[in-house]
Amino acid sequence: TGTINYAGIGDDLGAWHGALYAGTATRNAQFSGSRTAEIDFSRYNVILGYDLTRWLTIYGLAGAANADADNRSDDSSSGLFGAGFWAGLLEVDQLSFLTTISRYRVNSGAEISYAGFDEFSWTQFDGFLTFELQNELNNTSSIFPDNIGLFFGPVVSFFESDEYDSDSDNLVGMTVGVNLMFTDDTYLTGAGDFFSDDSSVYGMMGVRF
What is each CA distance from 192 to 57, 72, 88, 114, in whole angstroms? Predict the structure, then answer.
């Protein structure tokens, strides 16, 4: 029914990967025993990655973060640093029995980031596993994407802080998003992560060069 590509098959791309990222999130955190604080985060950073193979990219990030906790009178800003990876685990294309879907992919990734705010530090761990359906649009205009992908799957997110503790009800959630690919090397991504009480939305624009 199509061509199946597994992780590890393919040549080394040897390509750099750059992206701009912006996102906001609401996190519920515990402090002083059983008390709960709601923290609004915003994050803006650049990403620089390297494609070790056609299916694995490692990257570092740097930028700025802002935290506004309802148990504090003032918000706080900090520099943001981190590292992570993206991995394409499976790809199947040429789906002749599905005329509206060109291929599907299974992707995964993980990231660790750190911000040192004025009154507390924040180290966050994130991971995902997504299933993506892609459709080639065959556009001739450079304004519209050549390919659109819809993805969804489980996400894991937890943090360590000298002031707050992760809420155990908000460790595992679901992500839903869209990828717009204008060329093989340029894309735009928008997504939302949803937990029991927490949520986040983000956008990313990237290019390989």
Answer: 22, 27, 20, 21
